[in-house]
């Protein structure tokens, strides 16, 4: 996305600007972030809401643009975030509610939107230590599932998420919404199946794969011996043999009733909290 002051109107001090037209090229660039291609080309993505923007800035994510609706002007936290954005060389846009609605494609939009630089954790930098849990997702398709899993991984104290194969984008608006801010707290890496298998061999981890044909009850596994990578299968087709055969255990969550399987995000939650059960306590957590 462009950093320049294009469009109409006089320049304000630093990088602050009022925008009133939907046709403004900066607004068009921001709206284009709903497309994966634009997000990849610009290396940026959008997060809605003051809370998320504050979380992201506090966690050290680089903000490129802060957009707020006129109604939010003068609110102390909004002003603070605007000052931080300008101080880090970003752009602050004051816009009409109509523009913010159109950026977020919502009738009742949040009053504040932040455009941040995307961040991927390189797979080779992941060297899990004892007590760490990672979750790897094979070709996850649904943005709501991915967002929910990132949020759950955060809540369970997992160290990060590894996306294997062609997956939905963690930086899409829908996924970011579903993470409720955890996308800023949980490192996300991506890998081809081959890269994941190669990494697994040298990372000193135990891969616990979940499979509907798994023969091991997930509650009988020792999750303390080595750092654990939970490997979850695709929503439609489950885990392919190529990945399943690399696992140290094929775990199953016993079920009753008519349902064939659990939803991917639900199965991930069950596994994350079981794998970290010995590390989670009310006295040390929230
Ligand atoms: N039709 C798919 C299949 O045959 O595997 C169903 C996939 S399920 C919706 C998505 C993923 O959630 C599975 O690949 C597995 O990783 C996990 N999962 C769901 N229910 C499970 C269970 N009862 N035991 C183990 N894993 C389960």
UniProtKB/TrEMBL annotation:
Cellular component annotations (GO), alphabetically ordered: cytoplasm
Biological process, per Gene Ontology? methylation; RNA processing
Q: What is this protein called?
A: tRNA/rRNA methyltransferase SpoU-like protein
Any matching Pfam family: MRM3-like_sub_bind
Q: Which family does it belong to?
A: Belongs to the class IV-like SAM-binding methyltransferase superfamily. RNA methyltransferase TrmH family.
Which GO molecular function annotation, any one, does this entry have?
RNA binding
Keywords carried by this UniProt record: Methyltransferase, Transferase
InterPro entries associated with the record: Alpha/beta_knot_MTases, MRM3-like_sub_bind, Ribosomal_eL30-like_sf, rRNA_Methyltransferase, SpoU_MeTrfase, SpoU_subst-bd, tRNA_m1G_MTases_N
UniProt signal peptide: none
Domain (RNA 2-O ribose methyltransferase substrate binding): residue spans on this chain = 46-122
Species name for this entry? Rhizobium gallicum bv. gallicum R602sp
């Amino acid at each position: 996305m462009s950093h320049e002051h294009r469009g109409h109107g006089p320049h304000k001090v630093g990088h602050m600007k009022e925008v009133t037209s939907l046709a403004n090229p900066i607004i068009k660039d921001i709206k284009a972030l709903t497309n994966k291609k634009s997000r990849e080309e610009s290396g940026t993505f959008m997060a809605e809401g003051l809370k998320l923007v504050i979380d992201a800035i506090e966690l050290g994510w680089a903000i490129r643009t802060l957009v707020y609706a006129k109604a939010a002007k003068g609110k102390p936290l909004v002003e603070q975030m605007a000052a931080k954005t300008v101080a880090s060389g970003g752009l602050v846009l004051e816009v009409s509610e109509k523009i913010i609605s159109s950026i977020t494609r919502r009738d009742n939009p949040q009053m504040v939107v932040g455009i941040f630089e995307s961040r991927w954790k390189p797979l080779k930098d992941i060297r899990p230590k004892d007590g760490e849990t990672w979750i790897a997702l094979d070709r996850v398709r649904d943005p709501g599932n991915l967002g929910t899993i990132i949020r759950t991984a955060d809540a369970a104290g997992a160290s990060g998420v590894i996306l294997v194969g062609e997956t939905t984008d963690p930086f899409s608006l829908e996924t970011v919404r579903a993470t409720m801010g955890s996308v800023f707290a949980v490192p996300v890496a991506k890998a081809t199946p081959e890269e994941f298998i190669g990494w697994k061999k040298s990372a000193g981890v135990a891969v616990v794969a979940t499979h509907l044909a798994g023969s091991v009850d997930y509650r009988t596994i020792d999750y303390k011996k080595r750092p654990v990578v939970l490997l979850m299968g695709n929503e439609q087709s489950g885990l392919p043999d190529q990945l399943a055969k690399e696992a140290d255990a094929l775990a199953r969550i016993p079920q009753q009733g008519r349902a064939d399987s659990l939803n991917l995000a639900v199965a991930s939650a069950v596994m994350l909290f079981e794998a970290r059960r010995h590390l989670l306590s009310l006295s040390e957590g929230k």
